[in-house]
Amino acid sequence: MRLHQIAHCRTGDKGNISNISVIAYDRRDFALLADLLTPAHVKRCLAGIANGAVERYELPQLGALNFVLHNALGGGVTRSLALDAHGKCLASAMLEIEIPER
Amino acid sequence: MKTLRIGTGAGFAGDRIEPATDLARYGNLDYLVFECLAERTIALAQQAKMQNPETGFDPLLERRMRAVLPVCYENKTRIISNMGAANPQMAGKRTLEIARELGLKGLRIAIVCGDDVHDRISPDQFELMETGQSLADLAKPVISANAYLGAGPIAQALADGADIILTGRVADPAMFLAPLIHEFGWAMDDWQKLGRGTLVGHLLECGGQITGGYYADPGPKDVPDIANLGFPLAEVSEDGNAIITKIPGTGGLVSVATCSEQLLYEVHDPAAYLQPDVIADFSRVTMTQDGPDRVFVSGGDGHARTGKLKVSVGYVDSFVGEGQISYAGSSCVARGRLALDIVDQRLKMTGVNCLETRRDLIGLDAILGQYDGDTSHIPEVRARFIARTASLADAKRIGEEVESLYLNGPAAGGGVTQSARQIIAIVSGLINETVPSPTITMLKV
User: Fold this and answer.
1) Segments forming the whole domain that contains residue A58
2) Looking at B306, B336, B370, which one is the last position of a domain?
3) Contacts of B264 in chain A (CB under 8 A)
4) How far apart are CA A50 and CA A82, in angstroms?
5) Which of A74, B77, B198, B214 could form a disulfide with A80 if both were Cys (CB 3.0 to 4.6 A apart)?
6) Closest chain B residue to A63, measured at CA
7) Is residue B79 part of a domain?
8) How many domains does chain B have?
9) What's the structural domain count of chain A?
10) Has residue B435 been placed in a domain?
């Protein structure tokens, strides 16, 4: 199954850095998300998007992870040639990540 | 315990106007805040002002003021906005004229200036966050340099009796923090309170993004009556904790889920959200549903400010030319790729100097990059060729080559669009907080 079934996401941009939150619908799934979505795994799944370092911050009380993707926006919103220069759609790429069936 | 009601009238320059009027009319608000400055807006406004000194402020200022001023006057709701952009003086003057026309006697309009630090930074000593090089090394024409001011000057203007405050660049959350400082008498070194006020500001500053906008995903995330989305308001307590809600009868949704998405929007380390007045700490924030469309937010914190202010510098970076054309049917991907190859080859053959190019098949790979799956069932694609150039003339050549595919390219291409534009880009750096000298000018209706 896909992450879309147990979590929701929102993307934000600052310069050439994108951040994507991953929030469990059910806080009991937080441990599973924290276990599966290591920065290395996210960087692999978002190959071609996350071109730099990937950092992860945890907010267990909200069932949330926050991923910070460096060098992910084609040089930054104001000069990128990308159709989605803000990377607003990237949250949807995160939600496509496959997770084990339960 | 005293509670302050602060609403959002706009979350960006192009935001809707009637939800702001509804909020002003029915929200029982103490303050209505309009956040209208994206990263690049001031640089573009500065360019407009250079063409015509009467402009350079938010183009929707007049419509917004006409819509909300009478009801805000009647309800004693004070207005705070960065709609001054590159020309707060002229925004103030225009607002004064509108208020006079509407007969709103006694209204006081404060203009906060001082964010423009173009003359106060030395390009060879101003280090860019993005590259580590100096602004001088960038060797591009600089249009604007604006510091993100804090809540101090706005709180001062409120203390001076302002009903409307118009600013240029200030930190977005500071526009919401300032009335809390003013009304609750928070000290400028009460880091926890300033952190909590910043949290309220951060949650409210994007308007509908916390009331169910930018959230809907039919099925797992249904949002009722979203076309009638209500803008948010916060009921803030003296301790800085707050209820986020919206007015009854509007569409949308305020839930722990919508608030959680907004909490992390454009945040990197939640424990260190850097602001002019405080390092806000969102890492231990808790949220609980307090009723329908009511979420209680608590646990915000803060740490001593850095003493530095972020400065956004707008400069003329380059030109960009773009062309698009559509193909349909089972071989559309192959024809789209051929079209892009032709454009690439033609630009080289005709000596167009492209500094950077990008080619997309919209519908296939434009957003998420390379698509490796089967393409035989893709019903249609839109080929897009875009390039960065050093001149507008070269930028225009991109669209021309795409357009010429009509008669000279692959079969059955249609719907060409083209554009060429100058790119004003933004770089950032830090200055000492003592560099700008904010000023307040008061106008009386």
Assistant:
1) 3-20+28-80+89-95
2) B306
3) 10, 12, 19, 21, 23, 59, 64, 66
4) 14
5) A74
6) B260
7) yes
8) 2
9) 1
10) no
pLDDT by residue for chain B (445 residues), tens digit each?
A: 789 999 999 999 999 999 999 999 999 999 999 999 998 899 999 999 999 999 999 999 999 999 999 999 999 999 999 999 999 999 999 999 999 999 999 999 999 999 999 999 999 999 999 889 999 999 999 999 999 999 999 999 999 999 999 999 999 999 999 999 999 999 999 999 999 999 999 999 999 999 999 999 999 999 999 999 999 999 999 999 999 999 999 999 999 999 999 999 999 999 999 999 999 999 999 999 999 999 999 999 999 999 999 999 999 999 999 999 999 999 999 999 999 999 999 999 999 999 999 999 999 999 988 888 899 899 999 999 999 999 999 999 999 999 999 999 999 999 999 999 999 999 999 999 999 999 999 999 9
Instruction: Tell me how close the Cα of A70 comes to any Cα of chain B, in angstroms.
Output: 11
- Give the closest-approach CA distance of A13 to chain B in angstroms: 6
Residue B378 domain-assigned (yes or no): yes
Tell me how far apart the alpha carbons of residues B219 and A7 are, in angstroms, rounded to a whole number: 13
- Measure Cα distances from A79 to A47, A83, B42, B103, B389 in Å: 22, 11, 16, 45, 12
In this complex, do A61 and B265 lie within 8 Å of one another by their Cβ atoms? Answer: no
Tell me, yes or no, if B188 comes closer than 8 A to chain A by beta carbon.
Answer: no
Q: Are B195 and B255 in contact (CB under 8 A)?
A: no
Q: Is B256 on the interface with A (CB under 8 A)?
A: yes
Give the minimum alpha-carbon distance from B126 to chain A in angstroms, rounded to a whole number.
Answer: 18
Q: Hey, how many other C-beta atoms are within 10 angstroms of the C-beta on A69?
A: 27
Nearest-CA distance A47 → chain B (Å): 9
Residue B69's domain spans which residues? 3-114+149-306
For residue B295, the SS3 value is strand
SS3 content of chain B, % helix, strand, coil (to 5): 30, 30, 40
Q: Does any domain span residue A34?
A: yes
Note the helical H segments in B116-239: 135-138, 152-159, 174-184, 191-204
DSSP-derived 3-state class of residue B421:
strand
- Interchain CB contact of A61 with B (< 8 Å): yes
Buried b / exposed e along B110-144 (16+ C-beta atoms within 10 A) = bbbbbbbbeeebeeeebeeebeeeebeebeeebbb
Within-domain flag for B60? yes
Tell me which chain B residues have a C-beta less than 8 angstroms from the C-beta of A93. Answer: 367-368
State which residue of chain B sits closest to A59, comparing Cα positions.
B283
Collect all residues of chain B within an 8 Å Cβ-Cβ radius of residue A74: 358
Q: Does B222 touch chain A (CB under 8 A)?
A: no
Pick the residue of A25, A51, A78 with the most B CBs within 10 A to test the interface with B by mutation: A78
3-state SS class at B140: coil
